[in-house]
Amino acid sequence: MSKQQHSRTNATIVSQYEEYVMPIWKSLDVPLERAEGCTVQDFDGEEYLDAFSGIAVTNVGHRNERVVEAAKDQLNEFVHGCSYVHPNGPVGALGERLAEVTPGGLRKSFFCNSGTEAVEGAIKLARKYTGSKEVIAVEMGFHGRTLGSLALTGNRAYKSGMAPTINNVSHIAPPYGYRCTTCDSDSCPGTCANNLKRVIDSHTSGDIAAVVVEPVMGEGGIIVPPEGWLARLKEVVEEHDALLIADEVQTGYGRTGEFWGVDHFEVTPDIVTQAKGIANGLPLGAFTATEEVANAFEAGDHLSTFGGNPVACAAALATIDELQDGVIDNAAEQGEWLPERLSELEAKYDVVGQTRGLGLMQGVELVDPSATGPQGIAPAPDADLAKHVGKNLRERGIIVGVGGFHTNVMRIQPPLTISREQLERVVDALDAAIAEEA
Ligand code: PMP
Q: Strands 285-290 and 243-247: what pairing?
């Protein structure tokens, strides 16, 4: 270890960030020195149980042995050759593997480096294939922060001061039953899907390239659409000869207890965007389309210097092996148990407005029961409480995300390898933190 590494402490790392890294962060509370499985450690030797996976990325556990070995093997062969100039083994094999595991008849992939690039590329492909310009996304949804994907992201907080983004983008209402402005029903019949037709007829030329949707909205606050919602969208998409793009950047790779989020809804998308969990932390993104759609791209239409880096693709192949060798089964099993425990918190505390999610993508929405929420619907979101509960959890050695459209949702998205005992620790700590902070 170098002298410089030896002298690192949490404080020195944070002060370097403050001095030399652009100040875009909201908090810098757990500097990371190393990580293993579901445990991360800071520079002062403090250990944490990680129930957020670096924003839902390390699905098969930090430093998963099979993934690390696969990446090392490829590092020993070669690191870079531009995968679109020099064909290489990991890219070919991963392309073939994705044709097997992606839903429906999806067959050809493009490999990039991140979620936002996957979304950008998918929009380009949809426009090229359909010859149409208009794209529709969902209010409160999140698809990235570069100017194309940012246009789809349905939250002004991310766009303020950055406009203009791309044109020809409209939004439909989110399937957010708890704070629904479309119908007044707790059980959410999903009739808001009809909103798509209205938005197309009111706000667009009618010539639609794609509707882009997260099967479960992640950054928006772990919002699960009701049965039938996605299928209704798909019907309208087909009526307009448009494409359905499922943004599986967050829901893919086992996060919801199935390989893909759409697996819960029996809907086949035309393009699936992927990143986050795909290579368990190595930077990789992808979008996969049917052969017919994919072949709309011609030579020179798209490229990325680093896209489909062979080390990242080798890691992705090992990640998929791990997921299929029991990790998704564990996510499904723990993801059955966890919501039951969380709903106990909903019954116990009136500051817990709603708990919801699929698999190991669970949200706990915190509210102020003494005030009414936006547009007079549901109790007011309590972002302050969420912030304090998050901090309290970190003091208890647990990392949980805080997010959502109103920044009031505790996001429990641990590595999918998490054990029951570890999850029990997370829920017990959450229970105690809410009791202390409410
Ligand atoms: N799509 C979804 C659904 C996401 O959750 C995210 C990231 N939170 C993105 C796209 C953007 O991914 P990235 O940060 O890798 O660009």
A: unpaired
Q: How far is the CA of 306 from the centre of ligand 1 (A)?
A: 18
- CA-275 nearest atom, ligand 1: 15
Residues 6+ apart with CB under 8 A from 68: none
For residues 104 and 230, membership in a common domain is answered with yes
Q: Could you report the per-residue pLDDT of 360-394, keeping only the tens digit for each?
A: 999 999 999 999 999 899 999 999 999 999 999 99
Name the closest-CA residue to atom 14, ligand 1.
115
Q: What is the tally of structural domains in the chain?
A: 2
Domain encompassing residue 335? 3-63+326-437
- pTM tops 0.70, yes or no: yes
What pLDDT, in 10s, does the model give residues 177-214? 999 887 766 667 777 888 999 999 999 999 999 999 99
Q: Which atom of ligand 1 is nearest to the CA of 247?
A: 3
Q: Is residue 45 located within the same domain as residue 146?
A: no
Domain end point (choices 306, 322, 338): 322
Tell me if 120 CB under 6 Å of ligand 1. Answer: no
Of 248, 220, 186, 251, the closest CA to residue 365 belongs to 220
